[in-house]
């Protein structure tokens, strides 16, 4: 099939790779220019990790793994217990893992200007002026997808009243030198207003990831990116010959820690079902039935996590920081954390066998 992928982020790159492997003709466009984003680290786990294992990419992924030490003994123990199920790596390295396998090039600063779709195909006019009909259009444009607004005006965006920011900056004096240690320290600070996690990126730089009640300002940063935490609420995953995945379909927010994993998982499921069924409509219907319940389940966990980390009252905050931390150190919150980390979510792949 001739397939247009709108979005050059992780979701778009993953589905493009899998489609090329299956022999499809792929075209990729990206609305932004080829700019450099902050070099931050993600924890890759759950269904997405299992997908890469099944596709023979686990060894390459492990070669990119960053080994960190944790100031919290409880977190360190949790990671050690699940080290074969969690891979911490740079988001840039994760994207490059797919980029290096792509045969198609990405057309930057190009977006969908107009689109008409039915059960037979999608007629698209690009911002470059090009007009083309595609067998399938895949939207992986992010939370505020322009094309989704055209085709799915019923989309709801749930504001979590939180902000996140990522920046790369020069290390603070106390952590200036990593030396040759294999396990540089991750540090964290937490108060009523924000949670900040800092970790080394290079010998000279560290990355800071902040979740906060108020927007952050760029201060002494090499690169800075900020945004609101929002959930995309949808009851449909496709229309005609247009289908969504990644944040376009159901943003999970950084609170879930599962955006990268879900993007790869959804790409795997979509391509697998296209190969399984002769009917594209049947493949898209089954894709919708498979992924939407999992998105809704994770979004429910996100709301719970948000209320736990950022309670509305300072009284509840004191409970979290005092009694809650004590229970955490005793290991009584491990089940809660494992649910947040989705280490046990391998049932995602129940019907998505390669």
Protein architecture, described:
By secondary structure, this protein is an alpha/beta fold. It folds into two domains: 2-161 and 229-349, 3-Layer(bba) Sandwich (FAD/NAD(P)-binding domain); 162-228, Alpha-Beta Plaits (2-Layer Sandwich). Helix content is 36%, strand content 28%. It is built from eleven helices and 17 strands. It has helices spanning 10-21, 47-54, 58-63, 73-81, 91-99, 146-151, 247-250, 259-276, 280-309, 314-329, 334-341, and strands spanning 2-6, 25-30, 41-45, 69-70, 86-90, 106-108, 112-117, 122-126, 131-134, 136-139, 156-170, 185-190, 194-200, 205-212, 221-233, 238-239, 242-244. A six-stranded mixed beta sheet has the order 6-2-1-10-17-16. Strands 4-12-13-14-11-15 form a six-stranded mixed beta sheet. Helix 1 (10-21) links the parallel strand 1 (2-6) and strand 2 (25-30). Helix 2 (47-54) crosses helix 8 (259-276). The longest helix is centred in the last third of the chain and has 30 residues, at 280-309. The radius of gyration is 21 Å and the shape is globular. The model is unreliable at 173-182 and 340-354 (pLDDT under 50).
